[in-house]
Amino acid sequence: MLKQVHLINPMGNASGGSEWRTLRLFEELSTHCDVQLWSSSEPNPRFSDYPIRRIDLSIKSFPMTGTFIIVGVYHELGPWIDLARPTRTILIYNTSRLDQLQDRLHTLQRFTKPKVEIVFAARWLMDACSLSGPVEMSPIDLQRFAPAACERGD
């Protein structure tokens, strides 16, 4: 049986680094395990080619168990997280918001066993919050964000 992995991000910003990181992780992990993409809000239409599932507590549509990879600390998880029972929780810290990191860790550590693992997007983010964990540079293709070449008229 394949390992179940849930990638969790709002998926609202088509230019957002967290969203593209989430999609790239989906592409990389899909060949090795059962991966689900989850969003707590309506995903940006730009991502319509991806099988993003909407978190909806009213119909019990949310990740229940398996490995949770929460990409970013800037979004609320919602009350569904209290009902979930992940076997592993990984939090990717990729924005310089120590207050949000602390809030997210507090929320997750209320119920999560074993301890939440933090993956840092850069060494300076890890150093700034005095926590430890692996540093994983974003796997997104930065060329996607390069300005389009312009034709020069003489």
Features:
154 residues, alpha/beta, 6-stranded parallel β-sheet, 3 helices, globular
SSE pattern, N- to C-terminal: EHEEEEHEH
Query: Which secondary-structure class do the elements indicate?
Result: alpha/beta
Main β-sheet description: 6 strands, parallel
Strand content: 15-25%
Percent helix: 10-25%
Give a count of the beta strands, DSSP E runs of length 2 or more: 6
Distance between the termini: 62 Å
**Strand arrangement, largest sheet?**
3-2-1-4-5-6
Rounded to the nearest angstrom, the radius of gyration is: 17 Å
Count the DSSP helices.
3
Notes on the protein architecture:
Helices cover 21% and strands 19% of the residues. It has 154 residues and is an alpha/beta fold. It has one domain. It has a six-stranded parallel beta sheet with strand order 3-2-1-4-5-6, sandwiched between helices. Helix 1 links the parallel strand 1 and strand 2 (34-39). The longest helix is centred in the N-terminal third of the chain and has 13 residues, at 17-29. It is globular, with a radius of gyration of 17 Å. It starts with a strand and ends in a 25-residue tail after the last helix. The mean pLDDT is 89.
